[in-house]
Protein 1
Amino acid sequence: MSDLLAHINDKDLRLIADKITGNIRISPEEGLLLFNKADLGLLGLLAGIVRRRHNGELAYFNRNFHIEPTNICIYNCRFCSYHKPEGDPESWEYSHDEMLDIVKRFDDKAVTEVHIVGGVHPNYDLHYWGSLIRKIREHRPSLHIKAFSAIELDHMIALAGCTIEEGLILLKEYGLDSIPGGGAEIFDEKLRKQICDEKSSSELWLKIHETAHRLGIPSNATMLYGHIENYSHRIDHMQRLRILQDKTNGFNSFIPLKYKKSNNSMGYLGEVSTIEDLRNYAVARIFLDNFHHIKAYWPMTGKEGAQISLSFGTDDMDGTIDDTTRIYSMAGSEEENPAMSSDEISKLIREAGFIPVERDSLYNPILNSIGQSKQD
Ligand code: V47
Ligand code: SF4
């Protein structure tokens, strides 16, 4: 290994590289130094070492679909291309029956997970959303229900007059299996005020996830990057997540989300480059040593972007999606109708030099009838 790193002339960088290859945790200052000084090639090499430590040559995906119950939202996050106020002609709101119809469309398909996220609707409390979950659970008991960002949870639980803990216990009883990573944005309080002032605080986001983990509800974590933040803000965000993960081990995966500029009020900022995306994935993979999985969310990155990121630390390509999400196409993603067959995802993974594994929502491989991992 030392031969491979022999070209590193910078003394600090060399020390950090030695730590990473020696499986020693790097500090926030060292994470920042990586962002500032390490070139893409070195980051790819180091992130590759860490990704192999966690996941060998495997790269995961699942068969999933989304439900976006409504785009009506009480908040006005400046980066959001999706939300509309109540009564707006472009707003939508599905009834429980309409959402169950979406679930039923997948009755003859081998999907294992539904991902439910939408705007923060003013009127509906946790019992309204809980009874939706119960109906889905009754219709298809084996489907993993990953639903509601911490921001939606904060509002629906408050409307029901419960504490966070009481609300999450009730939602678990209704059938909630896990919580997606949305709403984290960027934890730095000053920046959060500038881009999503009204939203639940960083402290509350972390508290909701911590409470969920304690109650046996796993979750994901995201980070919105490529807007007004700098590298220290990204490291601060990941450091807060690393501390919580040390405490609970309840996060399944970390999902960096690149800010997309269309149809929102921060578009003048433009978007960061693919190189920046890869550097960010790599530093995340190295820094978050207690997260087993780093997800490349392909409806945001594009199929090839996600494929390339596998060589920069990611090990999960999310799922088949089947054209059920609009959040990213509305923000200008090239994937206007995101859908991939499991064959297509597997091919992308193989082309990148990794072994595709269909997983369930907790990263257990899904086995075929003779006990082999499904790698079609
Ligand atoms: O919190 C909104 C982001 C998130 C934009 O847990 C934007 O498996 C970029 O959390 N440009 C919601 N990003 C989506 C989300 C998610 C996605 C995929 C998988 C999982 C998971 C969770 O979308 C929001 C916000 O950070 N977002 N607008 C935009 N213009
Ligand atoms: Fe509402 Fe979420 Fe959009 Fe913010 S990002 S305005 S909370 S839908």
Note: Residues 2-48 form one domain.
Protein 2
Amino acid sequence: MAGECRRCKKKEAEVYLPHSNLNLCSDCFLLLTERRVKHTVNAYKMLSKNDRVGVAVSGGKDSSTLAYILSSLFDKVDIFLIYIDLGVPDYSEHCLYKVNELAKIIDKELIIYSLEKDLGLRIGDFKSTIYGRKICSACGTIKRYLFNKISYDMGLTKIATGHNLNDTVEVLFNFYLEGNVESLLRMKPFLRRIHPKFVPKIKPLIGLTDMECLLYAEYRNLPIRTIDCQFSKGSRMLRRKELLNMITERMPTFMHSFMQSHFKRILPTLEAASKNREIKLYECTICGMPTSLKGAPCHFCKLISTLKRRA
Ligand code: SF4
Ligand code: ZN
């Protein structure tokens, strides 16, 4: 890339950010990326100084970037890395190796939950419970449940996840398409405690694109996985992401504008109109953890019972 860095005006520019029409050198890119994450954390008041935060790590570029930035910018906060080993052949061992390396680099404790050792199951076993859908829906339920349960049992005060701008816009876009108002109301950069056993969730990377997370991880030389999960191919989520990328190529500010107008304009209006529909959580009749289902087992316990019935 030709030309000097627009910020320092000293070094050669290496990164072009189309949404802000900026050419940056690697140092200025890293600095601005960290500032933007700090801005998101402060704008939504995501962290306070006595927080004990579990960072959900997967070996991917987003969660590695998140763990690195949080541990370097917020040194008053206690940080733990939590990895769920799903038992996907090759992939899970590869990711475990990467998160172990990351934990060493940032000097944080790594908590590992193995589906196989702790539950006697692998994610592939859940195929029979999903009635022709992608296994990712069961995987999402399992990971959400376990991250919350592990963090609750450890007395953590927040769970940080690596959802970035592309992920957030993809999910919002899907809820809009479905007209899924309940889920739109629940989808927030900072989901506060809505039940005593619900650990608040934060998404500090929602202002960064996929590409920015990847470049950050690469420039910092963070250990990130180089293979994909065998179940990821052909998902609807990937197709929607491709579509959004096509729009963004023509309109570089599309994703930023979409997210801004949702969180700043549409969500407050939806919240005001749905005052009587506040999100309620109940306790699972099997495990006692929070669930949106009244007088019934939570989605996780339902999956496990279905699997046991079929065994
Ligand atoms: Fe889970 Fe699907 Fe991701 Fe594989 S691709 S880790 S099954 S959500
Ligand atoms: Zn349950």
Note: The chain has a mean pLDDT of 94.
